[in-house]
Amino acid sequence: MIGKRIVHYRMQKDMSVDELAKRTNISMKYLSDLEQNIWMYPSVQYVERIAQVLDVSVHHLLGPQSDEERASDLDEDWLEVVQKAMSSNVTKEEFKEYLESQQRETDRQNKKGID
After folding, report:
1. Model pLDDT for residues 36-87, shown as the tens digit of each residue
2. Gene3D superfamilies from the entry (predicted)?
């Protein structure tokens, strides 16, 4: 989301919302709402001003989600499972095979219960 990106780049510049507001000539309230994703679709002019002050491209503010952003959207429990799998040197393929075998076993157990 654009709000998270603005916060990220603003913090990298060690800049307050107030300073960003002054330097972009955008109200602090609007920027704060934008950072909290209350305003999801800011004007192109505002995005260009923010990008210029933060010294990033407009694409960086509007572009596709980064891996970090996608990871932050994951449920914490799922994220923990994935992190454990990654730290245990299990390959993606091995992890996928394990999940598939567990699903087959569950399906088999469920089928037994029906018969």
Report:
1. 988 777 888 999 999 999 999 888 888 765 666 555 555 666 767 777 777 7
2. lambda repressor-like DNA-binding domains
Are the CB atoms for 30 and 18 separated by under 8 Å?
A: no
Query: Candidates 1.10.260.40, 3.60.10.10, 1.10.150.450, 1.25.40.10; correct CATH number of 2-64?
Result: 1.10.260.40
Backbone angles phi, psi at 37, to 5 degrees: 60, 30
Tokens of 66: 């980064």
Cα–Cα separations (whole angstroms), residue 41 to 30, 35, 55, 99, 103: 12, 11, 20, 39, 41
Residue corresponding to tokens 């089928």: 111
What gap in Å lies between CA 90 and CA 110, rounded to an integer? 28
Give the domain ranges of the chain. 2-64, 74-114
The pair of structure tokens assigned to 38 is 């209350």
Closest CA to 82 of 99, 105, 104, 107: 99
